[in-house]
Amino acid sequence: MDASLIGLIAFAAVLGLLALRAPIGFTLAAVATVATFFIFAFRSGSFAPERAIRATTSMVFSNSFDLIHSYDLSMIPLFIALGHVAYKAEITTRIYYAARVWLSAVPGGVAMASVVGCGGFSAITGSSIACASTMGRICTPEMLRMGYDNRLATASVAAGGTLGSLIPPSVLFIIYGIFTETSINRLFVAGILPGLLTLAGFLLVIFLWVKRDPAAAPVDPNRISYTERFHAALMAWPAFVLFTVIIGGIYGGIFTATEAAGVCLTAAALIGLAQRKLTLVDIWDALRDTCLQTAAIFFIAAGAKIFVAFVALTGVAPAIVDAVTQAELSVFWLMFAIAVIYLLLGMFLDPIGIMVLTLPLVVPLVETYGLDLIWFGVVIIKLLEIGLITPPVGLNVFVIANVVGKEAPIDRIFAGIARFLSIDVIVLILIMTFPVISLLLPNSMW
Q1: How far, in Å, are 128, 268, 350, 399 from residue 290 at the CA level?
Q2: Which residues, 6+ apart, have CB-to-CB distance to 250 below 8 Å?
Q3: Domain residue spans in the chain?
Q4: CB atoms < 10 A from the CB of 221, how many?
Q5: Is residue 206 a contact partner of residue 79, using CB atoms and an 8 Å limit?
Q6: What is the dihedral of CA 111, 264, 381, 415, to 10 degrees?
Q7: Locate the TRAP C4-dicarboxylate transport system permease DctM subunit domain: which residues (predicted)?
Q8: DSSP characters over 349-366
Q9: Quick one: DSSP state of residue 244?
Q10: Tens digits of per-residue pLDDT, 390-400?
Q11: What is the pLDDT of residues 82-99, one digit of tens each?
């Protein structure tokens, strides 16, 4: 049996199992292992399973072992732990409260503060779903209590939560960097301007929404003095310090991303303990949750690494590159096709699953066209970010729906999301059209 045919059957099997909601890590590892066994078994022309066992087990164990012992992968548990510790110490939530105080007199101010809070939360934790879940519990009930339109109250947090994919540190950037062998430091810095551009776009959506329909966001009647505002801003200093260490340290060449994660984790724990916002029980809970999330991500990554090795055996990627080269597609049509594929997959699959499933095929194409992998990484993460709020399976939307319950049905949340999606598409077009938006900062790094 031809290896490329086995590869196509394996891809179809993976898509089918994922459509049935099989776990992504198990699906990739199981399908790749079985398909690799058949490739080695049929290598001599006839079916010889005894020849395939040793080769298959060697490929599976060596690839998963090499990945788990990757130095770059160690930053994932560090950043996840940083997010949990910073939340337990109330460092991340103070950003929202500071923005809430300063924007209280602005129409739609609480919704804007929610987006700013999501951006600040993302700048420390790097997880979109964790951001949507945490900020949704804090911001959404308050907006609903104040009489906000439930579409605005829920959609602003669901959309703001996606900033965790683009604003560094980002778990998706780490995985992309590992699988494409690109600099994670440069990827982090490349996401800053597109992330801030997206955040500004979301604030503009809220401003225009409230200007057109003032009843959607009643103004807070409580008067807040300038003393209270400066006090709230001052209380948020730990978050600004951590963000400065992460971005400033990486951009200035002082730290690697892994070192920045370790330093900030230690600093967050010491700040929390010194301010008596963090207890030993909180630290234990944070470490336990970190272990659970890290194990899930590592299992997916190990399955993906096995799948990547299997794809290399099939020769499917070179065949696709040859087909595209012969078709003489322009860069525009290549990127358009990639964007459509990612947006369609984003309607049904989770971001990590989409990335590990598609990177073995699209990266060789991009390299053939001589495109910058740092810029392409930002484009991919932006596409995955859009998928988090795209129906019918927008993960962030379902997270918010679970938080608010019957107060905002799924259809109402998606109705509000449409306005934020329009900004996402505009930012995506800008990033794709003007690569300098993504490459300006990484190209100026020391």
Answers
A1: 15, 15, 20, 19
A2: 168, 185, 188, 189, 256, 257, 260
A3: 72-294+374-443
A4: 8
A5: no
A6: -20
A7: 12-436
A8: S-HHHHHHHHHHHHHHHH
A9: I
A10: 877 777 888 88
A11: 888 888 888 877 888 888
